[in-house]
Amino acid sequence: MVHHKVFISTPHGRYNKFSLGIKKVLSPCLDLLYRQIIRHKKQDTADKPYYLSVCAIFKNEGSILREWIEYHLLVGVDHFFLYNNFSDDNYREILAPYIERGVVDLIDWPVPQGQFPAYEDCWQKFRETTRWIALIDLDEFLCPVYETSVGTWLEKYEKYPSVIVYWKMFGTSGRIEHDPEQLTIEQYTVCWDKMYNEGKVIINTGWSFSKIYHHIIYANYKIGPFHFHLWIPPVNEFGKFIRWEQIHRTRRNATVDNISFQLNHYWSRAYMMHYRKKEKGSMCENYRHSMRQFFNSEHRNRAVDYKIFRFLIELKLALGMGPKDMSCNRE
């Protein structure tokens, strides 16, 4: 692991200090190039039905669907494009009210290893309906730290092709079993003491993208009469372009305590949830490796984070968890 004042990262491949040094020198130069292109690009000002939408693929996530949808409605998500990938639980019953309200588009997606193709399909079919598309999973919660709306936070990045939001990694919080009567965001509060240097991307549909992934996505910008292609990476909240994930780019006074946005990643939840998931399809050696990784991550949980709790009462009321004569008024 590589530690930074804001980030923890896992080096991919061999950790080459010389190569890393070259990339650190090149990064500010590339920033200047990308900014010049953005300055001269005609901005997309077309009115679209939604400002911020979420695209997600799911399989048998009925236990968290309502919490996840209601939470994201609270923080300013307008619409959801949800891709069902071989679910056989009660997801249709859960989603029916949201589909009827026009909040959710449900797409059946019986495609093995279908996550990236689903993102590509969403981009091709729905980009004219929304200004931004966040590509996240159902164990991830968009969490603005100071703003109350993700859309408001995004307004300052409207000229950029995409924005990366970094993971805050939450572990088991010491729980062996998950309590189905309690919300995920309430049960799991123990986390890494720094941000992970990876996350997910929110893409601006006013730009072109040749291939849609979820960690790092490059906008495809054509220059000149011969259409020379230049690939523009996402920007982070500090206004730094992330061409190489292993380069930790922040402002000088940045600390883990003044990050303005985090993507809460409840990647394991309770121990038995992770155990059962990994036990299903793994050979013995792969399973042992997976459990070693699990405990390596669990041992990094040295902090407690309650930032998302400021939305907790509103979420409980929206889910009907308060007194029966009370309701959550979103106006």
From TrEMBL:
Single GO molecular function: glycosyltransferase activity
Membrane topology: Single-pass membrane protein
A Pfam family assignment: Glyco_transf_92
Coiled coil: none
Species of the source: Alistipes indistinctus YIT 12060
Location, primary (coarse class): membrane
First and last residue of the signal peptide: none
GO cellular component: cytoplasm; membrane
Entry keywords, A to Z: Glycosyltransferase, Membrane, Transferase, Transmembrane, Transmembrane helix
Subcellular location: Membrane
Keyword Ligase: no
Protein name: Glycosyltransferase family 92 protein
